[in-house]
Amino acid sequence: xxxxxxxxxxxxxxxxxxxxxxxxxxxxxxxxxxxxxxxxxxxxxxxxxxxxxxxxxxxxxxxxxxxxxxxxxxxxxxxxxxxxxxxxxxxxxxxxxxxxxxxxxxxxxxxxxxxxxxxxxxxxxxxxxxxxxxxxxxxxxxxxxxxxxxxxxxxxxxxxxxxxxxxxxxxxxxxxxxxxxxxxxxxxxxxxxxxxxxxxxxxxxxxxxxxxxxxxxxxxxxxxxxxxxxxxxxxxxxxxxxxxxxxxxxxxxxxxxxxxxxxxxxxxxxxxxxxxxxxxxxxxxxxxxxxxxxxxxxxxxxxxxxxxxxxxxxxxxxxxxxxxxxxxxxxxxxxxxxxxxxxxxxxxxxxxxxxxxxxxxxxxxxxxxxxxxxxxxxxxxxxxxxxxxxxxxxxxxxxxxxxxxxxxxxxxxxxxxxxxxxxxxxxxxxxxxxxxxxxxxxxxxxxxxxxxxxxxxxxxxxxxxxxxxxxxxxxxxxxxxxxxxxxxxxxxxxxxxxxxxxxxxxxxxxxxxxxxxxxxxxxxxxxxxxxxxxxxxxxxxxxxxxxxxxxxxxxxxxxxxxxxxxxxxxxxxxxxxxxxxxxxxxxxxxxxxxxxxxxxxxxxxxxxxxxxxxxxxxxxxxxxxxxxxxxxxxxxxxxxxxxxxxxxxxxxxxxxxxxxxxxxxxxxxxxxxxxxxxxxxxxxxxxxxxxxxxxxxxxxxxxxxxxxxxxxxxxxxxxxxxxxxxxxxxxxxxxxxxxxxxx
Length: 743
Fold this sequence. Notes:
Ubiquitin-like (UB roll)
């Protein structure tokens, strides 16, 4: 309420007195008051002053009066919020709800407003409704406190979660209800819904599902498909949700013509080759969008950064036909004047710039820009990489590139523990800096111990030993191997070595790797060692010096190094014990990985490994250079390294021929909302190890399901494999587990 001085004679203010304030400083009142000492006060000015003070929200009562030539302002402040308590909340963290209240202006130390309190109750209810708790009940209590303050308490009774009882479609004939439900993630109760919570209604999920239905129709010819309305109703007990989708399918349209209009620097025949949709096919929005995107990107490769491609249909409804004209406006050709890099407080500019394929002073290229982003991302120094193209005011043929990176920690001290069914307990410790002084060079010192393998190493790598990307690295290492815990013929080796290695880029995706190392190895045989091992030691001795040369080629065209869904990885490598050393041998291996996206969530994965090894210069192949197969990283369902020839004790000896193939379908684990760090796989594994190529009789096969998780404590692999054709001498191990790096 307010009171003013009305029907008074105007007077000149000689002083202003403020009374009644407790928390608000008088200076704050004077700052908002439109009347100053010396002003002539009128009824109109008093009314305006009262409105201005009310607008601050600080006061619930304002009284103004005149005492002679003194203006007296008596105020009653609104109370301040001293504390906010929320009880009964289990669905949400208290911090989430407090953040939601803060977003509408309700927080400690703020002025209390009952209207905002009512909005707060509505906001809290909306938070719960978004989680499917329609029966939520919220009671707010206001408690007066000393010094004109109040305490607020929200008592929440969450109620049960409302579950989807029915989803139905009206107007569909081309696709059955079952077909349309297959496109939905929201569903009624099923075996997985306790984990996925997809039987709980969510407006964002419903909108995503409706878009999936829309894509199904528009990608299969239904050009004029529309979703007319969606009704979501709740049962009287607020425990059941019923969803009804009303749609109009329309006709199925065939593409009868495609034209390109617009002048470009690219031949029309080349642009036509980028069009995915063909005359005589049913209309597909997906193919049309891909086509316009490819044309725009192709023009972008020639410097037309702002090319626009618009598809305009000419619809013949009676015949169900449609012609498309692709209007192409390439815009002005531009070149890159300047490239700025932000966010790299530790990493030197040159480390980022040497990965760029888009250069300053050259024509803008979409392809080079995309590749530049990939190469910066693959450095591993940054958690985020963004590249923005900015026009330059007044210069239409130039643009600037703004590269924004967010640095991540590249140096760490590791103390790790892991477990695998082959190595048992794994311990590791190390100091690694992948980006020394921001130079991009890497240095690591590592100690890794397991029941089978132990290693100690120092490594240094300069990825740009030369300006054109030749890398050079040095390694000093000590490795001990004791296979007595495995089902292989027993021996242990101790190796001390060091070497230098180089990697030379051939193309954007191909590299040649080569190196030279010297190794001093001491080999001890177990009591039950096979005669073949004894003969080898008799020939070369327990202590050997080897000059080891390596040569390899790698082509990596995967879309991600950690979570690939598309592309290939090929590795061809050779290792040889060179003449002049005690051991002369060679090992050749080839690996091919292929990823192909079947759907948005399903990826087909095929991996093949081939290996061949032998000795030369009248020296046999060292038995500890044999190939082995079986285990969580090879042919699952068989114990590690047990596939292949056995000695008289039934222990595996390995072989100089290796063939392993893995076929899998990768998919996200239900209930993880597509978390890329956690993927499952249904797999078929096959493997062979031997001294000849008698693969048919000795090929081992298994099927099963696996789980891969890049957890905060290291990579985790878990598999259940079922051997399909084991021999009596094979050792089966259906459940296999690995935590941490397998050495």
